[in-house]
TrEMBL record:
Entry protein name: Recombination protein RecR
Taxonomic superkingdom: Bacteria
Natural source organism: Flagellimonas eckloniae
Sequence intervals crossing the membrane: none
Record-level GO BP terms: DNA recombination; DNA repair
Similarity field: Belongs to the RecR family.
């Protein structure tokens, strides 16, 4: 792609570094921004740099939060004996949208994936086991996508929990294998949390 301006080329290059954005889409977005009032671009760049500079993760569940403890963890109406283990923040948002779940979360920050060089030490697993050892958690609900990486991660955590007084369950799969949680519709996802099954039986089934 030939550019008539280095400034334009740089902006398109940076935009095209985003997932799912090719060079052509990047160019379209950049030209769109140029057509908008200058203030629009400033609002966008300010929001991004403020997010980057001030982003905070909940000290308990690792959800993105503006406060030390996120709104979910600090809400006394939530059931703190239930913790739903998810891959990332999008899953928290998807499950919250179902309005079917009243427990807390634990955001792992990814899945164990030897192919991508992600090991257990790269994820928020130690803090999860610590939460369980503190004794308030009665049940962990695994809600990772049912890919090989998701299954490996569930099983790894399950093994770490041996000897601890906690029940483990996994969300029922109305969702087909390999589907990511965020793409499941709210009704299906809500139902799969309510109809969760003991984790042990999910291992035997597979
Ligand atoms: Zn939290």
């Amino acid at each position: 792609m030939e550019f008539s301006s280095k400034l334009l080329e740089d902006a398109v290059y940076e935009m095209s570094q985003l997932p799912g954005i090719g060079k052509r889409t990047a160019l379209r977005l950049v030209l769109h921004l140029l057509k908008q009032p200058e203030q629009r671009t400033e609002l966008l760049s300010n929001a991004l740099s403020q997010l980057r500079n001030s982003v905070n993760f909940c000290s308990s569940c690792h959800n993105i939060s503006d406060t030390e403890l996120c709104e979910i963890c600090s809400n006394s109406k939530r059931d703190e004996t239930l913790v739903c283990v998810v891959e990332d923040i999008r899953d928290v948002m998807a499950i919250e949208n179902t309005s079917q779940y009243n427990g807390l979360y634990h955001v792992l920050g990814g899945k164990i994936s030897p192919m991508e060089g992600v090991g257990p030490q790269d994820l928020n697993i130690v803090s999860l086991i610590k939460r369980v050892k503190e004794g308030t958690v009665n049940e962990l609900i695994f809600a990772l996508s049912s890919t090989m990486e998701g299954d490996t991660t569930n099983f790894y955590i399950y093994r770490q929990l041996e000897g601890l007084a906690v029940t483990t369950s996994t969300i029922a799969r109305g969702i087909s294998i390999g589907d990511e949680l965020e793409y499941a519709d709210e009704v299906t996802l809500g139902r799969s949390i309510l109809n969760r099954v003991p984790f042990e039986s999910s291992i035997k089934a597979s």
